[in-house]
Amino acid sequence: MTPLSPQPSLSRIRIGSAPDSWGVWFPDDPAQVPWQRFLDEVAQSGYEWIELGPYGYLPTDPAVLTEETARRGLKVSAGTVFTGLHHGEAVWEKTWAHVADIAALTRAMGASHLVVIPSFWRDDKTGEVLEPATLTPAQWRDLTSLTERLGREVRERYGLRIVVHPHADTHVDTEENVVRLLDGTDPDLVSLCLDTGHYAYCGGDSVKLIETYGERIGYLHLKQVDPEVLADVRAKGTPFGPAVAQGVMCEPPSGVPELGPVLEAAQRLDVDLFAIVEQDMYPCEPDRPLPIAVRTRAFLRSCGA
Questions:
Q1: Who's near 296: CB < 8 A, 6+ residues apart?
Q2: Structural domains in the chain (count)
Q3: CATH no. for residue 266?
Q4: Dihedral (CA of 65, 68, 69, 70) sign
Q5: Residue of 103, 106, 82, 105 lying closest to 94 (CA atoms)
Q6: Considering the domain boundaries, does residue 5 fall inside one?
Q7: What CA–CA distance (Å, rounded) separates 45 from 24?
Q8: Is 33 inside a domain boundary?
Q9: How far is CA 277 from CA 5, 96, 206, in A?
Q10: Closest by CA position to 190, among listed 220, 160, 223
Q11: Integer Cα distance of 107 and 111 in angstroms
């Protein structure tokens, strides 16, 4: 529920938003708002931090992007990459080519995190099953070892820390699979981007994960799930993309998990953390995101963030 009065300040939490909250999933799509409008509106909503979103949506020239963000009072917290490292060494070179450009821009913008999203086992637009939903033991070994390699290479070459993002319709989704990834990787090389919405979508408890694996939490994405829509999605086996179009990710504080307790648990870790709002809304009408963003920022302030 919405707190009736402001809560004690969550001094270690830095709040931001992302292109995702403006319905942006792709570098270029006529259904999405222009990048200039996103930057204008995210600043107007009261956010100071943003993510890069899909590479190529925002300008990829650091000088241009620095000018555009600075004049709006914005700073970049992280870039995002997509990987399929469970496929083994055969995909390493292609993966690194994708990662390197994004890591370079991320570092040039003064950020220190790279959000790593595992590849989807079914297409997020069409729902086509691309591969089995469960990894073999050999694939798990490839996933963990190459994720560690990615963490090491990104840190050594770009000074960034990778944070792996559990995501619906990927192989890192449920509590069991998230814990398996964490237990199978070096804490010095691999941290977690805990997305509260995706974790709830897949049956996980964010507060419990923070309390149990707090030293592995390196970054947060804040979003909520509509329980009624989620029940329908689960009953029908709806793929993630159509589920988003159905409204499975909803405006806080109307869904789950409650974000106040999540932020309080994160604050108790006594480390500086980014908490980036991501309300998946692809596709959405161009005038829809701004009012939601303004209300969400006000709600988070009422939580002390």
A1: 17, 21, 45, 251, 252, 277, 279
A2: 1
A3: 3.20.20.150
A4: positive
A5: 82
A6: no
A7: 17
A8: yes
A9: 21, 27, 15
A10: 160
A11: 5
Buried b / exposed e along 181-210 (16+ C-beta atoms within 10 A): bbeebeeebbbbbbbbbbbbbbebebbebb
Chain centroid offset of residue 279 CA: 10
pTM: 0.96
Per the DSSP assignment, residues forming a β-bridge with 275 are 15, 220
| Six-digit token string for 17 | 């938003």
Please check whether residue 206 lies inside any domain of the structure: yes
In angstroms, the CA 217 to CA 288 distance is 31
Q: What is the pLDDT of residues 104-155, one digit of tens each?
A: 999 999 999 999 999 999 998 788 999 999 999 999 999 999 999 999 999 9
CB 182 within 8 A of CB 212: no
Rounded to a whole number of angstroms, the CA Rg of the chain reads: 18
Which residue range is the domain that position 24 belongs to?
A: 13-302
For 102, the 3-state DSSP assignment is helix
Residue 218 has pLDDT above 50, yes or no: yes
Q: Report the alpha-carbon angle 258-26-229, nearest 5.
A: 35
